[in-house]
Amino acid sequence: DQQVKQNSPSLSVQEGRISILNCDYTNSMFDYFLWYKKYPAEGPTFLISISSIKDKNEDGRFTVFLNKSAKHLSLHIVPSQPGDSAVYFCAASPSDAGNNRKLIWGLGTSLAVNP
Amino acid sequence: NAGVTQTPKFQVLKTGQSMTLQCAQDMNHEYMSWYRQDPGMGLRLIHYSVGAGITDQGEVPNGYNVSRSTTEDFPLRLLSAAPSQTSVYFCASRIFPDSFEQYFGPGTRLTVT
Lengths: 115, 113
Description:
The complex is a heterodimer. Helix content of chain A is 0%, strand content 55%.
C-alpha cells in the first residue's frame, strides 16, 4: 500500500514554462516532506523540503506547496530548463518514528523539459 | 570531500554467490542506510545504522547483512545471491538525528543470473 503516491509517471513541458509535479500521501502522521531529483546512473540528490508547519517553501526556481487538509504537495519549477529533465521523487517522514525517522518514498515522476 | 562513495559500480553474480557492496562517507554522518531501487517499486530501505555498532532492519532486509564498525563505512553483504536481488543499490547518509536530508552515493547496479 503506497503511502506516498506520485500518480503521474511522466511529465513533459516546454523550456521556460512551469513544471508542476504532484504528490499525495495517506498517512496523517507525516510531518516532513522532501523532494529529490535523480539523473540516470546517479544517486538521488536533495532538492527542497517542507515541514508540516508551513504551507510553502521556496528555493530559487523551486517552490514546494503543502496542502495538509488535502494531504497533497506539489513541486513547482519556474522557469523549467532542459537540465531539469530527471526523475523527481517525493518522500515523507512520519512524526511517530522517533529519532530513526525513516523516509517513505513515492515511485517518482520523470520530467522531460523540451528545448 | 568525496561525499558518499560506493564500489563497485556494476557487478554480475551467479545465483548462490556471496559478495559485499562497499559504502563509505567522509562527512562524519552518524546515520547511514542502504536502499534498493526496482522498476515500479521506488526506493525501499534494506538496513540502516544510527551510529557505529548499531544497525537495524528496514522494509526488505531478508538476504542481506550489514555491520557498522566505523562511522565512515557501512558495507552490505549478500549472503547467497538470488535473481530477485537484481537491482540498483544506493547507500545514503545524513546527520542524525537533526536532519532528514540524505546524501546518496552513485549506486551499484547488480545483476544476479
